[in-house]
Every structure is written in C-alpha cells, then in structure tokens.
Automatic annotation (TrEMBL):
Keywords: Cell membrane, Membrane, Protein transport, Translocation, Transmembrane, Transmembrane helix, Transport. Gene3D superfamilies: SecY subunit domain. This is Protein translocase subunit SecY. Pfam families: SecY. The lineage of its organism: Bacteria, Pseudomonadati, Bacteroidota, Sphingobacteriia, Sphingobacteriales. The keyword Iron-sulfur does not apply. Component of the Sec protein translocase complex. Heterotrimer consisting of SecY, SecE and SecG subunits. The heterotrimers can form oligomers, although 1 heterotrimer is thought to be able to translocate proteins. Interacts with the ribosome. Interacts with SecDF, and other proteins may be involved. Interacts with SecA.
Amino acid sequence: MKKLFTTLSNIWKIEDLRVRILNTLLFLLVYRVGSFITLPGVNANVLDNNAREGLLGLLNMFAGGSFSRASIFALGVMPYISASIVVQLLGIAVPTFQKMQKEGESGRKKLNQITRYLTVAITLLQGVGYVRTQIPHDAQMLSEPLFSISSMFILTAGTLFVMWLGEKITDKGIGNGISLIIMVGIIAQLPGAFIAELDSRLAGAGIIPFIVELIALFFVVIFTILIVQGVRKIPVQYAKKIVGNKQYGGVRQYIPLKVNAAGVMPIIFAQALMFIPMSIGQFFPGAQGPVLAALTNYTSPAYNITFAVLIIAFTFFYTAITVNPVQMSDDMKKNGGFVPGIKPGKVTGDYIDAVISKITLPGSIFLAIIAIMPSLAIVLGVNSNFAHFYGGTSLLILVGVVLDTLQQIESHLLMRHYDGLMKTGRLRGRTPVSGGTTGPVL
C-alpha cells in the first residue's frame, strides 16, 4: 500500500504528467455530459431506454448508453472506427493508399484527411438509419422532414466533436483518445449492470452465486490480460561493425511476435457477419427456418460454434495481411541482423512465417473462447448486461486500453528516474492493431 501511495505521489509531482491526466479527465467529463443531452425535438420520456441486445446492445455499450437515450452523441465514435478500418483495408489492397502509407508524415496527413471525410459520409448514412429505426414516431416533437434533416446533421456534428475530443486527448492528455472514449462508455454501463445482477441474486439464489460470479470474472480478466500481452520472442543477432575506433552492433535483440496480433478485429468482423442472419429474419419473416432461428439466437450452440469458427478464420486472415514476414526478413538483412542458426533472406522469412502460424492457432482459439464467454455466462444465469463484461469486444478493449494507458504513465515515471508501476520488470502496453496509420488503438 505504501508503494502505491508513493507512486501516486510521484505521478502528481511530474507537472507535465499531472497536466495531461487532468486534461484527459476534463475531456472525458465533457463527453459524458454531452452523452446525456437529448436530440432537439425528441421527447426523452417516451423513449425506450431498455437495454438492447445483439449488435445494437454492443453499439449502445460503446456509446456509453447514448444510443438508447437518443443523445447528440448517439453514434459515438463508431463511424470513425468504421472509416479507419476501411482506410486500413484500402492500404492493404489499393496501391495508391499503400504509397501514401510509405510517404511518412505527409502520407499520414493525407490518410487522416481521407478518414475524416469518410467519417462524415458514414455518419450521415448511419444518422438517417438511426432516426428512422431507433426513435419512435410518438417521441418526435417536430414534423418531417425537418426532424430527420436536423437530427442527421446534429448526429454528424456530435460524432465529429467526439472525434475531435479523442484527438485532443491523444495530443494534450494521456493514452489514445478514441480508445479512452470507448472505454469510458463501456465502464459507464458497469455500475448499473453490477447493481442489477446483485439485486437479482439477492432476490433469488442469494449472495454466494454472486461471489462465485465475481471470482469467475476475475479469472476471465486475468486470462484476457495473458492473451493481450502474450508474445513469442525470436532472437536476432546483429553483426559487429568497426567504424573508426568504435564498435557498432554485435548485440542480441528480439522480435516480439504477439500471440494475438489481430486484436479485436476478428471479433468485429465475425459479429458483422453474424448480424446478416438477423437482418434476413427481420426483412423476410416468412423465410425464417430452424437454421436461421438458431443463428439469430446468440445463446444457441449453433450461433456460438459458427461465431468461434469465423473468429479463428478471421484471426488467420487479419494476421496474414498485417504481419509481413518477408518484409521483416528483408529489413533485418539490410540492417545486418540474422536469426541464429537460420540463413538470412527467404529462409528467415519462412521461419518467421512458420512461427507466426504456430502461435496464431492457439491465439485464435483463446480469442474465440473470450468472445463466446458472455453467451456462456447468460446461459448460466448471469444478467445479460453484466455478462458483457465476461468477455467479447468490451473486455478486450477495457484490458487493452488500461494496459496501454498505464504503460504511457510508467514511461513518464521512468524518464524522470522514478520507480515504475511494477516492482520488477516493465509494464508492456499493446501494439496498435486497427485503424491503419491513423486509426484508433482498439
């Protein structure tokens, strides 16, 4: 406990770090206040604020409840996330975008601008869909088309303002701004879900099952941290070079290959595909058979098995397009580095590719287990709101963002010659996965 208070005191002593933390808290407070401001022309008393399930429930969690409250921030930063993913995929498939990625700072600015323009377009489209499907007609106090047009522009402005807040947090605060905004939205749902689960247990089976749930949640979080931080180190030896009277190189370093190099992207892609059967069932009610019904029930074995298989497949796919063993081998060869016992060049590339394939399989299986944990928790009787924290995208984002932010704080402490946050070793943050060169860290 004394170590904790000493560390907090050291954090407060560093003026730059103190200002950054206060700026971050201020920007997040502005975001949370704005999430409770209802769209003009909407009667908040008529809105259905009940928790949504499936993909809509996930969007509502990421938006911190703004989605169900018809807030000016109802769409949150998800349009920006979508735009960042699109730009990243274009950077893999389109040569023009690949060229911009290699242009350094100027290319990064161009990709940033394209991402912002694409965010506006996506937000406008999602704004129309949100007004038409999520706001009941009896809650609208303005006549059409004035209500739809004004709401669409206000939602777009709200998303752009949230995006600006995220960029300001990154520049003036601590941590990745967009990721912190998503994390705050998720954490905002935790107290209500915790109280609801506690009330239901006290009214039913008692406090013992609730304590067991908390213990299980603790171990799930530990397991998730292991997946996020797990790496396979490949030793790299650099040749010695004599320049003048000085010797360069001759040291051994490591290439840290992450067990889960794809982050949360496979879960996001798989959830998007699993939303297709639900959409078919809504648009064509007569076509719903037993298979379609099973795939729309996210607690059914068919849904979870399909979901897990898609996550494993997308993990291999996303790792293959984001981690390039050939380029890693070429860069290593140019810098005079080699893997001990492995010939430089193509043989080294094949070796790195084989290692990535070996660690990606268990990583993808563990990721699939984390993704289906909320469904298993619901089947075992956990409240659906509280079950979201037992795994899936929300838990991965929470763990990743917290580790990343703590790693930045520790870097500030070590630069000023203070002790880090851990007694031994250093806290490892995450590797940015999504959003290409400009997108958010998820």
